[in-house]
């Protein structure tokens, strides 16, 4: 019994230097992992913005294409970077750039009904018509360019 008690009283324990070295090593590990996570987060946010822009622009192009396809026998006009689409029932869509958004105003029987934002936070929107083709170009705030040609025959 005495030998066990003697060993317990003779053990030195952990010194302050061992604690400081352990805390230093743990701090270095935490710092490196935090830096890694912050880099991953920055890349993730950038990727999400790029994909959001891509899908938003794709949806805008799809909407414009569908409206032009539906209105082929009525009227599709381009003027000063604005697109005017009139369909069979005298429903009119006006698509235009407002400085940082792509908006669409809807008119029914010549009366204003609503304005919706089609695409937010874009740098520029340009639209040109050459005979039976409409060329649309959208540049996002991340300087990505998207272009689409739509036939109007």
What does this entry look like structurally?
The structure is a single chain. It is rod-shaped, with a radius of gyration of 32 Å. The protein has helices at residues 2-10, 16-70, and strands at 75-79, 82-86, 91-97, 101-108, 111-120, 122-130, 133-140, 145-151. A hairpin with a 2-residue loop joins strand 4 (101-108) and strand 5 (111-120). The termini are far apart. The strands form 2 sheets. It has a 5-stranded antiparallel beta sheet with strand order 1-2-3-4-5, with helices on one face. A 3-stranded antiparallel beta sheet has the order 6-7-8, with helices on one face. It has 153 residues and is α+β, with helices and mostly antiparallel strands. The mean pLDDT is 87.
Order of helices and strands: HHEEEEEEEE
Helical amount:
40-55%
Estimate the global geometry from the Cα principal axes. Answer: rod-shaped
Summing up helix and strand content along with how strands pair, one would put the structural category as alpha+beta
Note the total helix count: 2
Q: Tell me about the largest β-sheet.
A: 5 strands, antiparallel
Mean pLDDT: 87
Distance between the termini: 103 Å
Strand order of the largest sheet: 1-2-3-4-5
Number of strands: 8
**Low-pLDDT sequence parts:** none
Proportion of beta-strand residues: 35-45%
Radius of gyration using CA atoms only? 32 Å
